[in-house]
Design a protein that fits this description.
This protein is mainly alpha-helical. It is built from six helices and two strands. The longest helix has 13 residues. It is elongated and about 110 Å long. Belongs to the NDUFAF4 family.
Length: about 140
């Protein structure tokens, strides 16, 4: 905090500046050596692929997916199969059929439920004309 120290720090010393101009720095990277593995190769991580099981819907989706994954159409198909026939399409069978983890299949079946479309019968004209409007009293 003292002004003498600040002045000393900010003062340029000509002797040091001339010595600094004489300094020459040369930098080189070490030569790059190509290692000969001698036949040793690191295993490359290649994903195993499987053909999708789409049947008549194969034009709507991808042809190959990685093992442990399913396509969107496959997901909808297996969810619908499980909904319609849960005794046949169990979580174990789905996991084996689609190369999935059983824990993931159980989560899929628990949290994703396909919609059910229901059509209600339309009322006939006879039923509409036969009803009499009520009078307000």
């Amino acid at each position: 905090d003292s002004p003498e120290i600040k002045e000393e720090v900010l003062r340029k010393d000509d002797r040091f500046l001339t010595l600094l101009k004489d300094v020459y720095v040369e930098s080189r990277d070490p030569p790059v050596r190509v290692k000969d593995g001698g036949g040793e190769h690191l295993p490359s991580k290649q994903e195993e692929k499987r053909l999708t099981k789409l049947g008549h819907l194969e034009a709507l989706d991808v042809k190959k997916v990685s093992k442990g994954k399913i396509s969107l159409v496959e997901a909808l198909t297996l969810l619908n199969n499980h909904k319609l026939q849960p005794q046949i399409w169990t979580a174990e069978k789905i996991a084996a059929e689609y190369s999935l983890e059983l824990k993931e299949v159980n989560s899929l079946l628990e949290f994703f439920i396909p919609f059910a479309v229901q059509e209600f019968p339309k009322e006939t004209k006879k039923a509409i004309t036969s009803s009499k409007p009520k009078k307000l009293t």
